[in-house]
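Hi all, posting the design record for the shared folder.

TITLE: backbone redesign
STEP: 1 of 1
STRUCTURE INPUT:
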């Protein structure tokens, strides 16, 4: 049987939620990854170092016995995040970044930034202390076509931001377009990007295959095939500015299969397998380890993991759902379909 052994990967963009949802999804991530950057878009959001410490404690308490997994925490940037909180975050040792959600751009982003200028003093402090800014890169103007919102964000917000704060460490999260891949590639080393497995595997046709497929709906929404190909090219390029971030975003089955379904794909149950499939399809399995296990920690200035994981080329059928809440299950991306890689 064909096998692939790589340094244990990390997930540089993950939603773990809280309470019973956290307990349900955390074992999936903790089995595969050594660390994960945990998104702060809880209700209410994680805006202070004290809240991040408490959330971190709840995550650690929810870990399965014997798990060796380190949650890397983030703060949710609001119009009122003071520069003093940045200094506190940098000193904490466990807060690794600050997350910018444009207000209203995605799930639980109501408390997000209404105007980038409101954060200038805070961003200046982040640039000074070297605390990275993670960005959900979409404008929210309803007049802008949904499929153009990432490009318009780059042109109107991100490019000017990197000019104003040239030393600021920035990760453009879950990039979905050729424009984003080209922009990130054109910037200095302090600007990087994460790419999800689903944006490497699918284009927007997947959302409409034979009918509306809510489990393929996420934000930023899947784009056309040319963009998917550009993302694959970036992921397999060996350029260390591009690294793994699943954006696994759990929502209960009833919240997805609804008249107004939530955005987010649940991929944590087989994250590394989905990436392996994408890299294999591109004829670039040999590039998976750098993307999944080396470039992320290198960029964050953290040590690489020292243990390894092994994947086997082996077909298995994804369950129709997994336990999630007492009242509802969660439907994984690819439910009922066959995956061809399996982590041992
Ligand atoms: N990606 C998504 O579609 N949803 C994420 C939020 C986000 O990462 O934008 C979520 O929290 O559900
Ligand atoms: Zn996002
Ligand atoms: Zn996300």
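Okay, here is what came back for every position:
SEQUENCE:
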């Amino acid at each position: 049987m064909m096998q692939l052994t790589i340094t244990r990967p990390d997930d540089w963009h993950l939603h773990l939620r809280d309470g019973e949802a956290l307990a349900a999804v955390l074992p999936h991530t903790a089995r595969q990854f050594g660390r994960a950057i945990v998104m702060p878009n809880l209700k209410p959001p994680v805006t202070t170092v004290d809240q991040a410490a408490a959330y971190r404690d709840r995550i650690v308490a929810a870990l399965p016995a014997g798990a060796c997994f380190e949650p890397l925490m983030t703060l949710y940037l609001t119009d009122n995040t003071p520069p003093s909180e940045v200094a506190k975050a940098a000193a904490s040792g466990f807060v690794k970044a600050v997350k910018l959600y444009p207000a209203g751009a995605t799930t639980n982003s109501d408390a997000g930034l209404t105007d980038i200028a409101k954060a200038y003093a805070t961003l200046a402090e982040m640039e000074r202390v070297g605390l990275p800014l993670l960005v959900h890169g979409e404008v929210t103007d309803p007049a802008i076509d949904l499929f153009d919102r990432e490009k318009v964000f780059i042109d109107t917000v991100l490019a000017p931001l990197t000019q104003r704060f040239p030393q600021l460490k920035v990760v453009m999260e879950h990039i979905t377009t050729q424009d984003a891949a080209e922009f990130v590639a054109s910037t200095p080393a302090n600007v990087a990007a994460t790419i999800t497995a689903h944006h490497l595997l699918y284009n927007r046709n997947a959302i409409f295959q034979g009918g509306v497929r809510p489990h393929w709906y996420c934000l930023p929404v899947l784009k056309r095939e040319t963009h998917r190909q550009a993302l694959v090219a970036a992921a397999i390029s060996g350029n260390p500015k591009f690294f793994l971030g699943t954006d696994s975003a759990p929502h209960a089955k009833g919240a997805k299969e609804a008249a107004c379904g939530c955005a987010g794909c649940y991929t944590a149950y087989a994250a590394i397998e989905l990436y392996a499939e994408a890299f294999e399809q591109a004829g670039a399995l040999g590039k998976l380890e750098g993307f999944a296990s080396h470039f992320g920690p290198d960029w964050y200035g953290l040590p690489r993991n020292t243990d390894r994981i092994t994947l086997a080329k082996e077909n298995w059928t994804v369950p129709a759902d997994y336990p999630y809440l007492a009242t509802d299950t969660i439907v994984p991306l690819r439910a009922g379909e066959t995956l061809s890689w399996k982590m041992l």
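COMMENT: The pocket of N-carbamoyl-L-aspartate (ligand 1) is lined by residues 15, 41, 106-107, 136, 218-219, 247, 249, 263-264 (CB under 6 Å).
Let me know if anyone wants the other runs.
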